[in-house]
Amino acid sequence: MIKSITINDFIGLPNFIPLIDVRTPAEFEQGKVPGAFNIPIFSNEERVQVGTTYKQIGREQAILLGFDLTGNKWSGFIKQALEIAPAKIIAVHCWRGGMRSGAMAWALDLYGFEVYLIEGGYKSYRSWTIEQFEKTYELTILGGMTGSGKTKLLQQFKLLDEQQIDLEDLAQHQGSSYGTMNSMVQPTQEQFENNLAFQLKGLDEHRRIWVEDESLTIGKRCIPKSFWEQMRSAKLINIDVPIEQRVELLCKEYGALDKDFLIACTERIWKRLGPQETKNAIAAISEDRMADFIRIVLVYYDKTYNNGLSKRDKENVLTIPINSKEVVSNAIRILDSVVGANLK
Q: For 133, which DSSP code?
């Protein structure tokens, strides 16, 4: 049985149903519904062939070519679907709910699957994604200078039944020139947005949601403008951590990284550090004086953070001194301070 279903209704289903995306590997890599599986009807090259035939000759010839290209693939498609959905209940989509998903749905239905066919395909999911950023959320921003341990606090908030979104985790970047940590690979902009929207839909928009203070861009990924504007107007909890404590934390994070990586990243911000400080920072890296290197670059990052802080409405900023290294007690203290200040 084939059931047509909107993307909103599919996302709202109470029980998980495996979703297969029948677009090409290239389309899937560019952006997908989080959790979807790829069973491409056409390879990247085959899709070009079919598209060219459709434009130059016509729809019917393109359909015939499509069957010629996939003729011996259908049993493989069904076997893959059985591995993904052994209960034989599955959802299917292509780019905009056209022939590719229709053909797959027909084949799976013929085999005995219960098939949910997504109306409008992946295009409808992209529209749904953009809609999530237009909603109003009860955001509370966790700020603090580089090395303040904000990510660990966000993780602790979650354990204390607070809602949170880790934008740096979604962007696979820690926000600075050194943000890839020489290992992270950022998702596409499209996928970053898809993942963010999917996380937002699982939260109660009327309850407080913690988000780390960020600039508009995280590495090469851009926070959706409407969501970022909410971040900029939200209450900011500015944690004030002593510099030595920050240096110690950053030495642990960056000390194990490849020196060539650290030097290359430092060279990219030489205009901001200045030629002499850049030279000093590189020398410190080469000589394993990690604390000296950290102190040099913190001058720049602290200045940048303070500049952003100065542009916020002071009535929306609550500064909390943090001297302890205990994440749990610090998280509880911050939450108590927020409640004491009557912030949502």
A: H
- In degrees and rounded to multiples of 5, residue 113 shows phi and psi of -75, 150
Domains of the chain listed by start with CATH number = 2-129 (3.40.250.10), 135-340 (3.40.50)
Global confidence as pTM: 0.93
Nearest CA-CA partner of 165 in 125, 135, 189, 201 = 201
Q: Please, what are the averages of pLDDT over each run of 10 residues along the chain (344 residues)?
A: 96 95 98 98 95 93 92 96 98 94 97 98 97 97 96 96 97 92 94 98 95 96 97 97 96 92 95 95 97 96 93 94 95 92 64
Structure-derived torsion over alpha carbons of residues 266, 271, 275, 276, reported in degrees to the nearest 10: -80
* Residue positions annotated with a catalytic role: 94
In the sheet that holds 37-38, the strands lie side by side as 2-5, 114-118, 89-93, 19-21, 37-38
Packing angle, helices 74-84 and 99-111, rounded to 10: 70
**Alpha helix ranges (H) inside the chain:** 7-11, 25-30, 44-56, 59-70, 74-84, 99-111, 121-134, 150-159, 167-171, 189-201, 225-233, 243-254, 259-268, 270-273, 275-286, 290-310, 327-340
